[in-house]
Amino acid sequence: MPKWNTTSSAEKQLASILIQEISSNSDKYKQAEQLYQITLRLLNGNAGFSKDWPNFEDEITSNLIAEIVYQVELRDSDVKRSGSYFTPHVLAADMVNVAAQNWKRDRSSEIENAIWYDPCVGGGIFPVAIARFLLEQKMPPERIVDRITGSDINPLFAQATRIRLALVLSKGDLKKFTQLYNRCLNSISEEDSLLNFSEISDFFAKPQKKVDIVIGNPPYVRSNNLSPDVKKSLRMLYPSIWSGTTDLYMFFIAHGLNALKTHGVLCYVSPATFQRTSSASQIREYILNKASIHAVFDFDELEVFQNVHSHISVYALIKNATDTLTKYSLYTTLPAESPLTKNPFPIVNVSLNGLGDRAWSFHPKNTSILPLLERDSLPLRAYFKIYSGIKTGLKNAYELVATKHDEILNDEKSKQYIYRLVKPQQIEKWDLQWKGTYQIVIPRGQTMNPDSKAYQHLLGFKDELSVRSDLQKDDPWYSLRDCAYLDLFNAPKIVYRDISAHPRFALDKEGMAVVDGAFFMPTTDLFLLGLLNSKVGEFYFKSCCATIGSIGSRARLRFKKVYVSEFPIPKHVDSKARAAVERFVEQMLTGDTMKTQELEHQMNSVVLDIYRVPFEQRQTILES
After folding, report:
1. Phi, psi angles (nearest 5°) of residue 55
2. What distance in Å separates the CA atoms of residue 497 and residue 514, rounded to the nearest whole number?
3. Dihedral over Cα of 578, 584, 586, 588: its sign
4. Beta bridge partners of 260
5. What is the mean predicted confidence (pLDDT) over 386-394?
6. Which of 90, 273, 340, 402 is least crowded, fewest Cβ atoms below 10 Å from its Cβ?
7. CA torsion through residues 73, 74, 76, 77, sign
8. Spatial separation of the C-alpha atoms in residues 547 and 222, rounded to whole Å
9. What is the DSSP string of 234-295?
């Protein structure tokens, strides 16, 4: 599989020497000035560097500047905190091509007239890619500079972008470089771009002209890593998409759409989580209200960014367009070149009519089948409540295993604190694979017997247990957080994993504790268990659940309460059909795996009848 992150070893070596000229953990404005001075000295013949500086007769490249900035960020440990991951050159160049093609599709105007905007320039990869693209259109450098705008909250990033643009457009000529760099001071700024083009009128925001194309790689900072002050500001600026768990890059999507003129194009590379997670329902609705989704390039968990294996996608949105179809493509490898415009993978047209604020599915058949499953039904939450497993804050302290902890398990003074425990990985489809695991459970307000073996065991973890964030001031150090439904653990119930490639709903006949990473419903309804584990259930959850990885390949589903609670239960079910499903489930619970496959096949046929799925669409569900 080709690697897209192809900085040469020479550039890496030179950058590792040059960063010695930039102060460590210094004021970013000071670092920005030092980077500019380094560039001038390089263009002047490398004068004044340390004796370790090698002979360097090659062109001073913009890529070298990017590598210097990247190494400074790594050295100063800012990359993860800022959420900045540098986009590969081959991808940035092709995203520019995609954005340009989409902008030109309904216009007689030339692409040379478009204003480009990158709201988070990072190391400058997109402005540089735009400049190279426009040079190919025979545009003069001075005009190119005026057509590219951008900003970054990090002054070092903004400076690197100005320098790189000027280097590319001047081709290393010192006089031209200086002139072009000075022009870049007007177009590339160091500021928080989210303050502009927000949903509110802000007296302090700079007046901004709308742009034609927004392109970039917005910073990926999870909501729980945003400071309270930042969250407060974002809630005020973008109330329509605020949820309390909205990740930072999603605000950049709203910002980018607001910055566009009518029929302008937004092209981003970012995590794909906004397409499916429950916390992103507001941004999905925002996108559909503001734009059409022209294309989605799904890179699954391929290494788009160096040493990052998150689910990544590239997408093109067109503001105020009325498209009814989007082009979707799933990648299983990284193409060596032109990954978007020369895409070697199948492209399918997916109707946008079935997309809403809930999880998006880009399988062309899913959007037509889901409404069939949901007709004349009620959501599962109308019948049953879903509960989370116990959160201890320190699993190693509270979990016990037979043989290893027999002294505790056989202690009469400890038995009142010990529950049998089913762990997520012990939950299989239909049944449990319990392996002698137990849980120490101390409800808030309960005092332990200090002579019990369980208490003495927990003493070994006292320091760690005493500093748990969920421990209240007056709680004993060994207490668990409040859990009003502890008594439900002792009863039979349906349990299931949070993360799984397929539905794994099982019947807990014995009444065991469930740990964090699993959920349960206080019911033994075999009909419900059959529906959830059926092919209809699998199709529904693959269409609606958030995923780790792409649903089209090796994804794991997130069976969060918000998704499972919406599972449609038909309101009117023939008693014979209900009894048939229950009978099949009873047989499968006997554990005879030789018969399970055939029984499931028969049960699925009955369930398809219950949901009244037309014959021509049944195969799609069965193949899910």
Report:
1. -65, 130
2. 10
3. negative
4. 211
5. 90
6. 402
7. positive
8. 16
9. HHHH-TTT--SS--HHHHHHHHHHHHEEEEEEEEEEEESGGGT-GGGHHHHHHHHHHEEEEE
Rounded CA separation 352/367 (Å): 8
pLDDT mean over 3-26: 72
Edge-to-edge order in the sheet of strand 546-548: 499-500, 556-558, 546-548
Q: Report the C-alpha gap between 90 and 335 in whole angstroms.
A: 10
Q: What is the SS3 assignment for 172?
A: coil
Q: At what angle do helices 366-374 and 535-544 cross, to 10 degrees?
A: 120
Q: Is the alpha carbon torsion for 478, 482, 485, 487 positive or negative?
A: positive
Closest CA to 311 of 562, 2, 553: 553
Q: Residue 111 to residues 134, 296, 430: CA-CA distances in angstroms?
A: 9, 22, 59
Q: Give per-residue burial for 460-492: e unless 16+ CB within 10 Å, then b.
A: eeeeebeebeebeeebbebbbbebeeeebbeee
Residue 433: left if φ>0, alpha if ψ -120 to 50, beta else—which one? beta
Instruction: Classify burial at 351, counting beta carbons within 10 Å of its beta carbon; exposed 0-12, middle 13-18, buried 19 or more.
Output: middle
Confidence of residue 61 (pLDDT cuts 50, 70, 90): low
Mean pLDDT estimate for the chain? 87
Q: Which residues of the chain does CATH 3.40.50.150 include?
A: 9-364
Distance CA 431, CA 433 (A): 7
Q: Could you tell me the pLDDT band of residue 60, with boundaries at 50, 70 and 90?
A: low
Cβ atoms of 315 and 249 closer than 8 Å: no
State both tokens at 152.
């970054």
Q: Cβ distance 614 to 372 under 8 Å?
A: yes
Largest CA distance in the chain: 89
Please give the Cα distance from 373 to 569 (Å, whole number): 9
Residue 366 is predicted with a pLDDT of 64
**Tokens for 6?**
């192809």
Listed in sequence order, the residues at least 6 apart from 51 whose beta carbon sits closer than 8 Å to its beta carbon are: none
Helices 248-259, 228-237: axis angle to 10 degrees equals 30
Quick check: helix, strand or coil at residue 520? Answer: strand
How far is residue 16's CA from residue 12's CA, in Å, rounded to a whole number?
A: 6
Q: How many CB atoms lie within 10 A of CB 263?
A: 17
Pairing of β 291-298 and β 260-271: unpaired
Question: Percent of the chain at pLDDT above 70?
Answer: 91
Q: Are 417 and 448 in contact (CB under 8 A)?
A: yes
C-alpha distances in Å from residue 91, one per residue of 79, 95, 178, 202, 217: 20, 6, 29, 35, 11
Q: Can you say whether residue 427 is alpha, beta or left, with left for phi > 0 and alpha for psi between -120 and 50 degrees?
A: beta
Report d(CA 145, CA 185) in Å as an integer. 10
Is pLDDT of 457 > 80? yes
Cα gap 231→208, rounded to integer Å: 24
* Homologous superfamily assigned to 9-364: Vaccinia Virus protein VP39 (3.40.50.150)
Calculated CA dihedral for residues 33, 38, 40, 42, nearest 10 degrees: -170
Can you tell me the distance from the alpha carbon of 564 to that of 309, in angstroms, rounded to the nearest whole number?
Answer: 27
Q: Which amino acid is at 351?
A: S
How many residues does the structure list for the chain?
624
Neighbouring C-alpha atoms within 13 Å toward the C-beta of 342: 8
pLDDT of res. 367: 65
Q: Which of 231-235, 397-401, 591-595 has the lowest mean pLDDT?
A: 591-595
Residue range 392-400: average pLDDT?
90
- Please report which confidence band the pLDDT of residue 475 belongs to, taking 50, 70 and 90 as the band edges: confident
